[in-house]
Amino acid sequence: MKVLLVDDEKHVRDAIRLLVNWQQHGIDTILEAPDGESATELIARHRPEIIMTDMMMPIMNGVKLLEWLQANAPDSKTIVISGHDDFSLLRHTLKYGGTDYILKPIDPDQLNEALDKAIQAWNKEEELRQTNRELNIEMNTIKPMYWDKLLSGMIAEPSTYDSVAEQLDKALHLNRNISECRVAILSLDTMERSVKNKFSQNMDLLFFSLINICNEFLTTDGRGYAFRHWHSETEIVLLLWKDLLSAEAYLEKINEGMRTTLHSRVDFGIGRVHAFPADLTLSYQEARDALRKRNLKAKETWIHSMLNPAKSPQPALTFSHYEEKINLAIRSGSIEQIEEVIQLWMDSVKQSEVITLEQLDHWWREYSVMKRRFVQRFFSGGSEDKVKQMLSDEPTSVIVPLDEHGILSLSQWQQELTRSIVHMSKLLLENQQKDKNVIFEIAEYLEKHYHEDVTLQDIAGRFYLSREYISRKFKQEFEVNLSDYLGQIRMSKAKVLLRNPHLRISQVAEMVGYQDEKYFSKVFKKLEGITPNEYRKTANSI
């Protein structure tokens, strides 16, 4: 905390220094000034919390200094130390915010008490100021979200305008006299990847930056207001209500601001002029359609309107026509085959004169469904959680790869698609190898524990797999079911034991996992064609 001593007599300033226990009061800086004018310079530079001043000084006296303090440093606390017992001076002190009026010669106790009182008053007011600062910060954080939600609600349901008209007038100067509007949309779907990469760890900051740039232009001229669309993960909506016929030119101006600030332009879709608020939704839908139906293979403009639609796309090209070819390429595990089939798809895409965001979104949804189908088919033993985990690296919506000119980069798209499918193929091969390994582990387990009462349920529990999965994979690998495989092991071991004439048939049965001698004999005859006794006689006679 800082204190400023203002008195034209140095010995008075020195006396004050000696009479106060500054450390006890938490004061670490003591400044001095010989008159009011010098004091104002120090106050402006150092902002002391406490000011002790004389009233009768040259150049600028204490009376003028108090008036200056009320106008320029109202938060500081002032203690007057004067040699004049004058009521008019006391009244002036109280009028301009002084906390105490002390007479010379100075009483130490009175001075320290006055200082303590001034510090307490300053601390109390500072707590209140800090609370207000925090509230302001919180309100400034909440306000944009409030307007986002309110205006997004109006886009969806224009009739809500009447209930919020007064708020919109006071805050945004959108008053009831406004009868027409246009809606423009900026979408992050097709922003240059370099820009999105810069903000990849904080997309909220990207939204904040874009909206701020838009509103620097819109609110200055009272043309409109930009906000984040509450019902979309990628849209910023610009509600325009002034100079509507020149809106496209003004969006170009905003885009130049984007280029200067972010080193990148953006695409805007804009709807036609419509009645406000009744047809607000219609203008929004037109702006959205203009963006989604623009040709991504060419860059003729950054501002897209349904008044100048792109050429109609050619007959629909569907990704699902290539599903079986992709399926075979994935199963082959060959990167070359995967690249070939993706090249076939891309060759078909390149023949289209027009590619719209709408088409890309459709193809992406087709691919997402196809990929989920592949994962469920290839990893059928896995749980739904495992399927979700394997699909978690995919984005929740289409990502449009653009080059530095804002044109769809088919080469980038081809690379991304190839990478995704190669990754799936590698996962499939790894899973197949893992399946094969675990099935051989089960077979090895049976070889070692054939003499125990082994069931499929026991195996499933031991290896943390379902019975159905084990049965299917075991049959695929060994071409016999698990129970027959176990029976073959037991019979093989039994034939060796039967050669020992000292072992009874019941002992042999028990040693290979059968508690019932009759059941053992029945199984043995079924598999070998003769009874255990007949086998013993035949084997021992050779």
From TrEMBL:
Residues 2-119 form the Response regulatory domain. Keywords: DNA-binding, Phosphoprotein, Transcription, Transcription regulation. CDD domains: REC_YesN-like. It comes from the Bacteria. The keyword DNA-binding applies. Coiled coil: none annotated. The modification 4-aspartylphosphate is found at residue 54. InterPro entries: CdaR_GGDEF, CheY-like_superfamily, Homeodomain-like_sf, HTH_AraC, HTH_AraC-typ_CS, Sig_transdc_resp-reg_receiver, Tscrpt_reg_AraC-type_HTH. Residues 440-538 form the HTH araC/xylS-type domain. This is Two-component system response regulator YesN. It comes from Paenibacillus aceris.
